[in-house]
Structures are given as C-alpha cells and as structure tokens.
Amino acid sequence: MSDATALSDDAPANGPKPLHGGPLVLLTIAVAFSTFMEILDMTIVNVAVPHIAGSLGVSPSEGTWAISSYALASAIMQPLTGWLAKRFGEVRTFCVSVGLFVVFSMLCGLATSMPTLVIFRLLQGAGSGPMVALSLSLLLSSYPKTKQGIALAMWAMTVVVAPIFGPILGGYLTDNFSWPWIFYINVPVGAAAGVVTWSILRHRETKITRAPIDTVGLALLVIGVGSLQFMLDNGNDHDWFASPMILTLGLIALVALVFLVIWELTAKHPVVDLSLFTRRNFAVGVTALSLGMLAFFGINVVFPLWLQTTLGYTATWAGLATAPVGILAFLVSPFIGKNIQRLELRAVVTFAFIVFAFTAFWFSEFNSGASFATLVLPRFIMGIAIACFFIPLNQIFLSGLNPDQVAGASGLANFCRTLASSVSTAVTVTLWQHRTESHHASLTEYVTHASPATTAFTQQLTSLGIPGKPGLAVVDQLVTREAATLAVNDVFWGCALLFLSLIPILWLAKPPFGNAGGAAAH
C-alpha cells in the first residue's frame, strides 16, 4: 500500500479536512452539473448550425464558426489552469469561470448577428476553459482519501457522457423551441452550480502564489494553439496544405509551439508546467489518454455523420443511435471508482482498449442496410470500455503528484485530450472523404454496359419509369452510398488498430498508483 492510501481520511497531509454528508453530496452535484454543461456546449451546437446560419443570414460553413470559436478559446485556456489556480486560488478561479460561462451563455442566446455570436462564443470558451480541470481538483480535495476513486468516477462520467448527449439535447431544443435555448439552458444550471460551490468552498481556498506573468510563454501559447486549432477546424474545407492560408497557419503553429516548449522548460515561472511530462506516469497516462481519445472520438464523429449523410437518419435519430454508449459507462463507473485501489489499472485499461477494438472491428463489418437495432448493440457494449478507460488513466497520470499540482496536471491533460479530439475530427473526416472517393472510383469500374448486373438493374429502373440519365443518377447515388459505407468501415478498422497498438504503452506506467493527487511513489 502506498503512503497516500495510508493517510487518515480526516487528517490529510495538505489542505483542509475532507467534506462529509450533505455538503459533499451538494458539492458533487454542483460540480458535476457545471462540468456537464461546459463539455455539453462543445457538441450541443453541432446540430443547430443550419438553424443558426439561417436565422443570422449566413452560410452553413460560416455558421460552424459558432463551434470553432468556442473550441479555440477553450483550448488556449485549458493549459493555463494551473497558473490561474495558483495565482487566484482554485475555488475563486472555478467560481469566476462558472460565472463567466453563465453570462456569456446568455449573451450568445441574445446575439443578433454572426460576428456578435462568434465574439460571445470566444469569450464563453475563454471563461469556461479552466472549469473541467478545476472541477476534478476540487472534488479530489473535498473527498476522503479512501473515496477519491468515487469522486474520479463521478467526474469521468460527466466528462465522457456529456458530448454524447449534446447532439440529442441540441436537436430537441432546436426542433421544439429555437436555437438560442441551447445557450439559455446553461444559465439556471450554471448559476445554481456556481452559488452552491462558492457557499460550500469559499472558506477552503487553496494557497495563492503571487508569481509574475510569463508574458512570452502566454503569447507563444495563444499564437501556437490558436493557429493550430484554427487550422484543424478549417483545413478540410480548404483542402488542407493545398491552401496557402492553412499552410501558413501550420507553419506558425509549429514554430510557436516549438519555441513554447523550449521557453517553458527554462522559464523561472512558466505559464504551463511542462516539467510534469518528466514524470513517468503522467507522460504515459496522458499519452494513452490522448491517443485513446483520438480513436474514440473518431468513431463518435464519423458514426453519426454516416448515419445522417448516407443512411438518411435525422439528427435526432442519429443521436439516439449514438447515445446507448453512455448507459454502461454510467452504470460501471461507480464500481470502477469504488474499487480503484484494488484493481490493476493497467489491466483494466487494456481490457477497455480490447473492447474498443472489438466493437470498432464489429462496426467495420456493417453495410448500408444495417438496422437501427444492429447499429445500437455495439454502441451499447462499447460503454463498458469508457468507464474502464477514462477513470483508471486519470488515476495513473495523477499518481505521485502533490495536491497543489493536480489543477495544473488536470488542465494540461485536458488540453491534450481536447487537442486529440480536434485532430481526430480533422483526420477522420478527411480520411472518410478521401476513402469514399477512392471506393467510388473502384466501384464505378464495375458499372458498365458489359456488366449483367448493371444491365438488369437499369432495365428494372426503366420499367419503373426511370430511364436514361435519371436512371444513371440513381445508380450513381447507390454507388456513392456504398462507397461512403466502405470508407467508414476503413475508418473504424483504423481506429481498432490504434486501440490495440496503445496496449504496450500502458505497461510502461509504474505502480503503485495510489490515490489521485496523492504523494504516491512514481
């Protein structure tokens, strides 16, 4: 047993005593809901983009700025969490972050033009950036040592399940009310969460360090991450590096981020504590988490897109087909959290990657005639892997860290996870499109007058009153549908292989893993 697990519940080595009873339950609910709403906002807007674009008089491609502006600002702020928490205190920073999220959510709903909405989304993302990382730090510091696994499980459920339910809730609110309600819904929930958190934790503020601002590091971070995020969000629409703009953004991001790493490793008061990567378990855990999220998010991106663009699903039904993945994740997470000290965490994550790979291979066998029930079953089974993936990896990368390092470590890990999700979206959508074109070209080689199947099918169309060019257009639609299905199968296959390739990396982590944020060996 590590030193961390031997600590008394009521006498932690650092910080105030843990909470118990009603205050702990209220805090958990408040923090969980605030985290849920913040992460929900990353995906809830997706299905509402056509409505937003039509309402504000812009094209759908311009409407996507409502998504990318939020992601860009949030990605920049996430690695700053550690510095902000030390400079202003974790409780104060979290509550101010929740307050800003609420205010700018209201302003987003009131926006009457696209530029105004983009500005408010930028400010909303910047304000809420530290929320997710600090929510984990506050929960861990408030729970008794022996129950920190439960805190980690509760936090993990909100972080993983929220993006899944975003499109469903966004579609429902947009279809039955209007698009501003996807922002208004944040206001009462966020305000209540902020008030409850402040009332419980205002006397439990963390130690404040008046460190000077690392202006060079901050500038490099904003330029590098901003350029990279903008490139990832818009690369596919501009044919990637064939576009001078995307190429320029890529070069700026590369230069700025390289200089950021060099500067932060030598700065006396770095704005991002990259020295955390010198810790073995942090480096291994964050690498496995980020690459695992890259594959998992890739599946979550192309699956609903394929359903809507190829199989003719509505946004609501695509969301319903995606959502079952959260059921087992919700049910299994408390069990993993409760028993996290008794489990071999590397084996648990290995099991998760095997289940992810198995279900991804399963998906890769589907054809365009797959029924709703057939599509839902592997999504349901995949849910058990979420709990076995996310919770143990967070425990692994936080092991061995001091309590005052948890906020910075969680913020840096959350940034890597968010960046991996952005990379995954860009790569998988581009790969899907390119593979669709390749399969389309291959399939059309068999659509000739010399093919008995083609001749029989066109004759059947003629008998149905669809002769000549209209009939050939129907054939082309069918070929495109099958090409897109074969392409999505390729993406699932690639994700499965990535999951399996990550298993050896896990075993580079060194136990014991102790309690998250405890002084365990490393």
TrEMBL record:
Signal peptide: none annotated. The keyword DNA repair does not apply. The keyword Cell membrane applies. InterPro entries: EmrB-like, MFS, MFS_dom, MFS_trans_sf. Keywords: Cell membrane, Membrane, Transmembrane, Transmembrane helix, Transport. It comes from the Bacteria. It is found in: Cell membrane. Residues 27-514 form the Major facilitator superfamily (MFS) profile domain. Gene3D superfamilies: MFS general substrate transporter like domains, Multidrug resistance protein D. It is a multi-pass membrane protein. The chain crosses the membrane at residues 24-45, 91-112, 118-140, 152-173, 179-201, 213-232, 244-263, 284-307, 313-333, 345-364, 370-393, 491-509. Belongs to the major facilitator superfamily. EmrB family. This is DHA2 family multidrug resistance protein. It comes from Luteibacter jiangsuensis.
